[in-house]
Amino acid sequence: MITFQESVHEIMSDQTAIIFIHTPLCGTCKLARTMLETIEITLDKNIFYDMNGSIYPQFLQDHKVESIPCLMIIVNGEVERKIYAFQSVPYLYDLLKAYIHVGK
Questions:
Q1: N or C: lower Cβ tally within 10 Å for the chain?
Q2: Beta-strand (E) ranges in the chain?
Q3: Cα 90 to chain centroid, rounded
Q4: Mean pLDDT for the chain?
Q5: CA distances (Å), 103 to each of 20, 43, 45, 78, 97, in order?
Q6: Which CDD domains match (predicted)?
Q7: What CATH number should be reported for the domain whose range is 2-96?
Q8: What is the mean pLDDT of residues 78-103?
Q9: Which of 5, 37, 17 is nearest to 82 (CA)?
């Protein structure tokens, strides 16, 4: 995962960005992280931005994040989709394959 160090504006202006929003003590977030890391390992590519929601409460409020964990998909600077149910790795991959460029 790509650590969320760049400015929020920089990431929001990316062509496509997928942000994994979590908090440190969230058990469900740890399970979701494992699923996302499995996708990254399988594709041999860092795909997701890693955001600790505790550090960016204004971002969560501005973008109406309803719960944690959240996988936020940004396309052309706009929030296109928010995923809250991390059901399985195949489920996530099927949802995300339209946004992931599989080439290295």
A1: C
A2: 2-3, 16-22, 48-52, 70-75, 78-83
A3: 16
A4: 88
A5: 21, 9, 9, 24, 12
A6: TRX_family
A7: 3.40.30.10
A8: 89
A9: 17
